[in-house]
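Progress against Task 2.4 (sequence-to-structure conversion) is shown through the following example record, which the project officer requested during the mid-term review.
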Amino acid sequence: MKEKLTKEFIKIFGEGETTAFFSPGRVNLIGEHTDYNGGHVFPCALTIGTYAIARKRTDNKLKFYSMNFESVGVIETLLDEIVYKKENQWANYPMGVLKVLMGKGFVINSGMEIMLFGNIPNSSGLSSSASIEVLTAFIAKTFFGLTLDLVEIAKLTQKAENEFIGVNCGIMDQFAIAMGKKNHAIFLDTADLSFEYAPIELEGAKVVIVSSNKKRGLGDSKYNERRSECEAALAELQTVCKINALGDLTEAEFEANKHVIGDECRIRRAKHAVYENVRTVRAVEALKKNDIALFGELMNASHRSLRDDYEVTGIELDTLVETAWDQPGVIGSRMTGAGFGGCTVSLVKEEYIPSFIENVGKIYKEKIGYAADFYVVEIGDGPCVL
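Structure tokens generated for the chain above:
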């Protein structure tokens, strides 16, 4: 891969010494839409992700090229002229990270040429954007000797997405990618960023990700709307509860106080945030006790809550998950990511994976009219120099 990409880089940018980098994608096993509600999440980094070939320049020009968007060509700007422009498309993500780093006082004293190739499906909900953001910060750290640890990279790349891109995302995606560890998921408390690694031992099962191939853009989805609904519900609950976030509540505390939320829709949004947080804590406990069956049941309950209370699934994701539930060898299945398209994640016993792919694929195409893509994935490490 490295040699092939280096050849392509030279074709675009000319001869010279280069460095190769990799940053993973991520999948969240359980704990959806809890990260901006002060709850727990349970993501892991994947062995698919984003590759970069990069080198420093002697001037302050930045040049970006993606093999995934060849028709866009090379996108250029100057270090001191970085602004968000719609026509910069995907390159807004690395630009935003560099702008945030410099705004925090980190010295980036020359331009760069960066070529990317991602084998994460775009708009799939596996965080191709966060993968690019973490990768950019890691390249800058390596090239310019920035004194940045991986947790700071997660925080600053989230800031870039919030402030430069305009998507009010939580910390989960960037944290899972920056802190990834092979064969482990990360049990992260988003309220204080305390975390522990939990080994993933699935006893003859594998993680299967299914891309619905319904494209979605987070910024123009209802993501920000859901977030503001939760913030409004939190403010109402804070009139009777001493809490900083919805993730601070138990199910019983929520049920006892939900009457102060003045809108039925907001009650359901807040209920999802509270119950999903509890489910996530229980799921990690189940995994520690090797109770994979309970973990799967909690995944299924998570999807039902995202479908009925949070309303972020849609016909594509519901078809994939509900069809998966009917298949032999499926331990659990749910949508993953922000929703409104994107992916599902399923735990499937290995011997049933071929029939799972065939049956779910056939039913999905018949009902939706186009095909889904299937990825049997491994859990990998965070960003690295190749």
